[in-house]
């Protein structure tokens, strides 16, 4: 096959490379340079296949980059998004491998950022943090390791009390015991352990004669 022309595509930044068999390849400037393509070059079928594979990889890599520009993602999230866009598994694996090598995706760094963001937004317990990380595709072991930074008793109690104080504003209309029940249920939904919930509740209702002691 012979290259008949290399012209700028009507849309986008790619070039249309027309072959004498009627085939037209839409290639990026980088791929054209990498393969040294010029008008009247003769290409074998294997070379054309290699060119198309290289362009597919580059397209997938750029797509991954755009996804990461929007926000940090786990390996699993990026994998699923690229597959959903129609890129082959082998190409996706190669792209993710390269991005991991370059440090562009890092599940450990993602987990740390996720935890910091969640705690800053609304204090939650370690169980809820682990669940959130697992939903993002972080392994159970990695999620547990990441949560260790906020899983000590003092930190958990501090977070629970902070969450409880905020919640109490919306519970003022209830009588004391009902208010306490709702607060306990709220902290449990936030993923705090029972021991932490008891200590936080005692702190919040300290001095309240109508409160139930656990």
Helix content: 55-70%
| Counted beta strands | 3
What form results from the Cα inertia axes? rod-shaped
The CATH architecture of the largest domain is Orthogonal Bundle
Q: Rounded to an integer, what's the Rg over CA atoms?
A: 28 Å
| H and E order | EEEHHHHHHHHHH
**SS field, number of helical segments:** 10
Question: How many strands, what sense, and barrel or not for the largest sheet?
Answer: 3 strands, antiparallel
> Could you tell me the mean pLDDT?
87
Say what the CATH topology of the largest domain is.
Answer: Arc Repressor Mutant, subunit A
Major β-sheet strand ordering:
1-2-3
**Could you name the CATH homologous superfamily of the largest domain?**
Winged helix-like DNA-binding domain superfamily/Winged helix DNA-binding domain
Q: What is the highest CATH level, the class of the largest domain?
A: Mainly Alpha
Terminal-residue CA separation = 82 Å
Mind sketching the topology for me?
Layout: E1 3-8, E2 15-19, E3 24-27, H1 29-34, H2 45-70, H3 75-84, H4 89-101, H5 107-121, H6 126-135, H7 140-147, H8 153-168, H9 176-189, H10 194-204
Antiparallel strand pairs: 1-2, 2-3
Plain-language structure description:
By secondary structure, the protein is mainly alpha-helical. The protein folds into 3 domains: 99 residues, Arc Repressor Mutant, subunit A; 46 residues; 63 residues, Arc Repressor Mutant, subunit A (Orthogonal Bundle), CATH 1.10.10. Helices cover 60% and strands 7% of the residues. It has a 3-stranded antiparallel beta sheet with strand order 1-2-3. Strand 1 and strand 2 form a beta hairpin. Helix 5 packs across helix 7 and helix 6 packs antiparallel against helix 7. The radius of gyration is 28 Å and the shape is rod-shaped. The N and C termini lie far apart (82 Å). The model has no long low-confidence stretch (mean pLDDT 87).
């Amino acid at each position: 096959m012979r290259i008949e022309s290399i012209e700028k595509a009507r849309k986008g930044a790619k070039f249309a490379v027309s072959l004498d068999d009627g085939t037209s390849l839409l290639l990026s400037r980088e791929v054209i340079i990498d393969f040294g393509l010029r008008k009247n070059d003769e290409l074998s079928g294997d070379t054309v296949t290699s060119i198309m594979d290289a362009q597919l990889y580059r397209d997938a890599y750029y797509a991954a980059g755009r996804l990461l520009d929007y926000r940090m993602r786990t390996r699993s999230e990026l994998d699923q998004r690229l597959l959903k866009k129609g890129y082959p598994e082998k190409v996706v694996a190669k792209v993710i491998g390269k991005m991991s090598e370059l440090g562009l995706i890092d599940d450990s760094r993602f987990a740390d950022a996720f935890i910091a963001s969640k705690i800053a937004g609304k204090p939650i317990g370690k169980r809820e943090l682990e669940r959130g990380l697992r939903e993002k595709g972080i392994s159970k072991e990695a999620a547990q390791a990441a949560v260790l930074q906020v899983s000590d008793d003092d930190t958990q109690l501090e977070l629970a009390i902070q969450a409880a104080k905020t919640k109490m504003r919306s519970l003022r209309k209830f009588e004391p015991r009902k208010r306490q029940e709702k607060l306990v249920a709220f902290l449990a939904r936030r993923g705090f352990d029972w021991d932490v919930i008891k200590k936080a509740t005692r702190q919040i209702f300290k001095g309240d004669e109508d409160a139930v002691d656990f």
